[in-house]
Amino acid sequence: MANPQPTDSHLRLANSILEQLLFRKLTQNQLNIIYFILRLSYACGKKFAVIKNKRKFELAGINKNYITEELTYLIKNKVLIVYPDLNVYVLNKNYEEWTIPYKKGFTQKAFNEAVNENLNINPQFMECVHNLLTRSIKNEDTFHNLCVQSEAENIDTEQEAAPPIISINNYNYNASSSSEESEQKKNFLAELSRVENYPIDEKKDSSLFDSLNKDYPDLDLIDAIKAWAVNKLDNPLDSKSNPRSQIRTWFKKGQEWQQYPKKQNVSDLNFSLEKAKEEFGEAVRVVY
């Protein structure tokens, strides 16, 4: 019986690329061509595939009479980059250049909702499904009853133990946090998710944000993480990278070199002036 494991050799593909392959108007033949190229490029540890004979696309189920036509379409719409003299095929990962439209039923809002539903699964429900998949629960009625019961129990305990959780885009934030900090955290995680090969993890990266926010209160965290993300365009992450350690070092250097200073809000400034007036009265003068 086949039993693939995460430790087996595998294709590392950014979620954003997978989403484009799902939601663009690509035919099955065109998808098979792309999958074939990905298997021979990224899945082999390279950014390109070498295919010396076009007939090899028949391995992916493409009729020999349509191979050239499908390749021409993908090249014309900037999905593939091909160097025919070298027999080199490359997936253009800059999908903003693709000119193939999205499927009729796709909306970003509906997709975000579907992602949120899967990010916010009840832990007890997850355990029930896990037990079902491992065949320790064989009866579907028993499985359903256990899930309903555990979900009800979880609602009671969660309401007593913690403030409510709200969903913002694809990430969760504690409702007791300030709206400004929540917005910053959302932007911070969004910037990380755009970095190629970054192992985005909501729990770890939320903790990283909190830690950086505490240790570097004078830094603008969003400006700093954007600068780090730009740096990764020329120095991309690989399997040996330790990106969270890199980020902390980047912030440390930013503080030492007095880069990415936090911009003071006008409301904070006014508040400070009012406090000063209360304490020192007429001695305080504001010069504009």
Task: Please render the helix and strand layout as text.
Blueprint: H1 15-23, H2 28-40, E1 49-50, H3 67-76, E2 80-83, E3 88-91, H4 108-119, H5 123-133, H6 140-161, E4 165-168, E5 171-174, H7 179-193, H8 202-215, H9 221-234, H10 243-256, H11 266-280
Antiparallel strand pairs: 1-3, 2-3, 4-5
Helix pairs in contact: 5-6, 7-9, 9-10
Summarize, please.
This protein has 288 residues and is mainly α. Helices cover 52% and strands 6% of the residues. It is built from 11 helices and 5 strands; from the N terminus they run ααβαββαααββααααα.
Notes on the structure:
- This protein is mainly alpha-helical and 288 residues long.
- The chain folds into three domains: 15-97, Winged helix-like DNA-binding domain superfamily/Winged helix DNA-binding domain (Arc Repressor Mutant, subunit A); 108-161; 177-256.
- It has helices at 15-23, 28-40, 67-76, 108-119, 123-133, 140-161, 179-193, 202-215, 221-234, 243-256, 266-280; strands spanning 49-50, 80-83, 88-91, 165-168, 171-174.
- It has a three-stranded antiparallel sheet.
- Strand 2 and strand 3 (88-91) form a beta hairpin.
- Helix 5 runs antiparallel to helix 6 (140-161), helix 7 (179-193) runs parallel beside helix 9 (221-234) and helix 9 crosses helix 10 (243-256).
- The model is unreliable at 154-177 and 282-288 (pLDDT under 50).
Features:
single chain; 288 residues; mainly alpha; Arc Repressor Mutant, subunit A; 3 domains; 3-stranded antiparallel β-sheet; two-stranded antiparallel ribbon; 11 helices; 52% helix; 6% strand; disordered C terminus
